[in-house]
Design goal:
The chain is mainly α and 91 residues long. The chain has one domain. Helix content is 62%, strand content 0%. Helix 2 packs antiparallel against helix 3 and helix 2 packs antiparallel against helix 4. The protein is elongated.
Length: 91
């Protein structure tokens, strides 16, 4: 992926919202498998929410990501207010 597109991810509110919600929902979860889902060695491929988070690279600090959501929200609203101010000034 180009560097510019990769950096845009850091100003996306979705990145932080999904990270915070994933940790909240999966951190203390446990999973079981039906006999048809077991691996050849008889184990379940995914047994805990912590494993799910690490598989999807979402084992992040929830509180820090909530701060990211707040910062993105404030940033987006300030930008929108600035556009409205400039538009009013031009008209």
């Amino acid at each position: 992926m180009p560097v510019v597109i990769d950096r845009l991810n850091y100003v996306s509110i979705l990145k932080y919202a999904i990270g915070a919600l994933s940790v909240t929902n999966f951190k203390s979860s446990t999973f079981t498998c039906s006999p048809s889902q077991l691996l050849s060695d008889g184990t379940c491929p995914v047994t805990s929410g912590t494993l799910v988070l690490s598989l999807y690279n979402l084992d992040v600090d929830r509180d820090l990501y909530l701060v990211g959501v707040a910062i993105c929200t404030i940033l987006y609203r300030a930008m929108a207010l600035g556009v409205l101010y400039l538009k009013k000034k031009v008209l």
